[in-house]
Write a structure and sequence with these properties.
This protein has 219 residues and is an alpha+beta fold. Helix content is 30%, strand content 22%.
């Protein structure tokens, strides 16, 4: 069955560019982003890996760990990292999984269970469904799933925006409106009664409709 938001992120052991990991142990009490790639030495992913390395400090300050994945072996990742640094100005400063047995790709529903064989003989087109982003909380639950086609580069600024919203929601009973960004007004969550909202937001709220309750972003 396909994974969905609020499912427990499948645990796994894998070799990475920073050694062997057990995924849940690696996450620990942090948030995590797992983003996947159909093959090493592919053009769109090269730009993505470089940009992720550039903005990794923004993930660090939010307490978010970053890990990449490709079905190619870890040994090939080093050569790709050199190309990424040369062309993008930054090389990966986070672990990259070598998913040569397709275990992680299958666990996360990115490749069919029947896939097998030598990954070196598979093309990027064969693995085109391995273009996903998973945001995972400290509770090991999946908070967001994004799936991109091979021809469209991912927007990691949007991933940061979503993390900001998720972390705010985890601390306060709020939701964020369309195009929300840090500092904008937020919405009182729909599961919060007016009685409880008065305790949580004693300064009150703007309410253009009874079901829309707008408050400043909590500190």
């Amino acid at each position: 069955m396909a994974l969905a938001i609020n499912d427990t992120a499948p645990d796994f052991e894998a070799q990475t560019t920073e050694g062997k990991i057990k995924f849940h142990d690696w996450i620990g009490d942090k948030w995590a982003v797992l983003f996947s790639h159909p093959k090493d030495f592919t053009p769109v992913c090269t730009t993505e890996l470089g940009y992720m390395a550039k903005i990794k400090p923004d993930f660090d300050k939010r307490g978010v760990k970053v890990i990449g994945l490709s079905v190619d072996p870890v040994e090939r990742h080093a050569g790709w990292a050199a190309d990424i640094k040369e062309t993008q100005g930054f090389e990966p400063n986070y672990p990259m999984i070598g998913d040569v047995d397709y275990n992680v790709s299958k666990l996360y529903g990115m490749l069919p269970a029947a896939v097998s064989g030598d990954p070196a003989k598979r093309t990027a087109a064969d693995n085109q469904t391995v273009r996903n982003v998973f945001i995972i909380g400290p509770d090991k639950k999946i908070k967001l799933i994004l799936v991109y086609p091979m021809s469209v580069g991912r927007n990691f600024d949007e991933v940061l925006r979503v993390i900001d919203a998720l972390q705010l929601n985890a601390k306060h009973k709020i939701a964020t409106p369309v195009n929300w960004k840090q500092g904008d007004d937020v919405l009182i969550g729909g599961t919060v009664s007016d009685e409880d909202a008065k305790k949580l937001f004693p300064a009150g709220w703007k309410s253009p409709k009874p079901y829309i309750r707008i408050v400043p972003q909590p500190k």
